[in-house]
Amino acid sequence: MACVPHKNSAVRERCLESGEVRLSYPAAVRPWAATLSRLFRGEAPPQRRRQLQLDSLGSAVWRLLDGRRSVAQVVAAFREQYQLHPKEAELSVTRFLKTLGERGLVFMKIDDPAGDQGR
Amino acid sequence: MNPSPILKPRPWSTIAWNGIAFSHPARWQPGRVGRRHLILEANSQPVLELKWQTIRGRFSARRQLKRLAKRYPSAGFTPCDLQAAPPAWQAPLGNYETTCFKWQDGPQTGLGALLYCPQCGTATLIQFLFPSRSPMPAATSAAVLASFRDHARSPWRQWAIFDIMARLPASFTLLRHQFSIGRYTIAFKDAGIKAVLYRWAPASVLLLSTTLAEFGARQLSLGLDAARPEPVRPDGSVQWDPPAVPGRLWQRLMRPSARQRMRLWHVAAKNRILGVEFSGRKVADLDLFNEICAYYETT
Hints:
The complex is a heterodimer of chains A (119) and B (299).
Chain A: E1 3-7, E2 12-15, E3 21-26, H1 31-41, E4 49-53, H2 56-64, H3 71-82, H4 86-102, E5 106-110
Antiparallel strand pairs in A: 1-5, 2-3, 3-4
Chain B: E1 12-17, E2 20-25, E3 29-33, E4 37-42, E5 45-54, H1 61-71, E6 78-81, E7 97-105, E8 108-117, E9 122-131, H2 138-147, E10 156-161, E11 164-169, E12 173-180, E13 183-190, E14 193-200, H3 203-206, H4 212-219, E15 238-240, H5 249-254, E16 259-267, E17 272-280, H6 283-294, E18 297-298
Antiparallel strand pairs in B: 1-2, 3-4, 4-5, 5-9, 6-7, 7-8, 8-9, 10-11, 11-18, 12-13, 13-14, 14-17, 15-16, 16-17
């Protein structure tokens, strides 16, 4: 909970009219596809991007990720915004961040008071 | 002799679940909610565990402690009587047959009591968990124990968990429960009556592009036609009395079909939606429905 979530700089975000956020991020190329592309086309496969549209709650959490707030602070802000039960807010935010992390959209840094940061 | 430290009053919350009730520091949150098992956590670490059961026949503390000791094989599990427990525990546990215990497994310590209430026949395990180098203040554990209740003294039973509170007849038994993110469901039964309590959050998002009636019709599987015309009551809640599902002919001859009623209301101040679903065979059961709705609230 003390870790600070950071957005992947390769992610592009667009705010829709509905207020929801649509993310665009580079899709990982599977090694076998890259090999086939080099064999038949003589070059690496073109970089593809994937889209992910967040719902209103996910968009709210995404906006709270400013590279300074820790997970605990994101949970507290989310809880205050929607008047959720503390446990409910904690579970929903941590699960959402885990999903974003699995897609490579965010990564965690441990905030070191000495100034050195590590993963 | 050092003076007793002055403890600042801190916010406390109450849990009332399936026959027991107690108060606890508000920063402790339910981490696991079973039918007769609760674990409360602070900073994602367990701090309080309760397990309870109605004992038929003779209660043997020794047998229960043996089972408990097996959970902590390398922890130096040590039972002791109440006199050896923290002095602050004496008064709260005086009305129970009490056996205390302590264990320590490296950085973790457990301190608890096995209680048996001769009045209601309920045996309860309560244990406090804390880091060995940072013991829990005796005043905190004593306050929790002092608030502990294991039987109702009225025909009504309180239910309070997370951010909901309700009151149902003591004869209602817990059928099933589910606490998912955004949606809580607790179902009860008593003879020919079934009652289900619902709670949804956050209402501001759930009702962003839909009405309360449409939301309720979808959630209660009534079909969107049930939302038109909107069954809105003067207080803003929505209510349905769906027709009873006809059973087989012999069932209809033997007994009347169950009457159903469902009501949802929006608690704007807390950003929640509450709902009650009810079925019973007698007209008087619907009076009970109104009573349950009146005492169902969110904190």
